[in-house]
Fold this sequence. Notes:
Elements: E1 4-10, H1 15-23, E2 30-37, H2 43-50, E3 55-57, H3 67-80, E4 85-88, H4 97-101, E5 107-111, H5 123-129, E6 134-141, E7 151-158, H6 165-188, E8 195-197
Parallel strand pairs: 1-2, 1-4, 2-3, 4-5, 7-8
Antiparallel strand pairs: 5-6, 6-7
Helix pairs in contact: 1-6
This protein binds 5-O-phosphono-beta-D-ribofuranosylamine.
5-O-phosphono-beta-D-ribofuranosylamine binds next to helix 1 and helix 6.
Amino acid sequence: xSHKKVAILVSGGGSNxxxxxASMTGDHPARPCLVxxxxxxxxxxxxAAAAGIAIAAVDxxxxxxxRAAFEAELVKPILEAGADxxxxxxxxxxxxxGFVSQFEGRMLNIHPSLLPKYKGLHTHARALEAGDxxxxxxxxxxxxxxxDGPILGxxxxxxxxxxxPDALAARVLVQEHLLYPAVLRRFAAGDKTPVQLx
Length: 198
Ligand code: GRF
């Protein structure tokens, strides 16, 4: 069986990337082909290199806000690696419709909230502010609208008394590391049945 090739895009430490890479073994239908970042110093790149995975970096800063020019460079290593699936994993640059449309139906993202609640940033603080009793994370297909595509999986965690945003974020992150690999395994096998954890 030929494996699906997965490119993973990171901006920071890449803990979700580490979980995804660790899951792609044995009879898993996919294998990592590239870890790519907008930051050459991203911790995730060091971890990927240590795991023997091809890495690349395209710094967004020289493009000075010209998103299309940045994305024209960003897409090159993904195409050169022959990626079948692109996983955004803690990737912190907003991607234009032009970039996303090249990967329609085969680009995933993990977002730290129970979408459609709390699109965008500071999700944990917003959930606490709202007095929510449950919170969590979502894996969804990436479409041109930010944090908006078809939901492929969710994991829920309780919000506890005296939770701080950091404590809640840490509880959610544990679930991210379970949810994303579960969704990717199904998605790579052609199964879009949503995964529900917690
Ligand atoms: C985390 O806050 C996570 O919720 C979100 O991106 C951030 C960094 O993730 N998905 P990672 O450790 O770089 O995967």
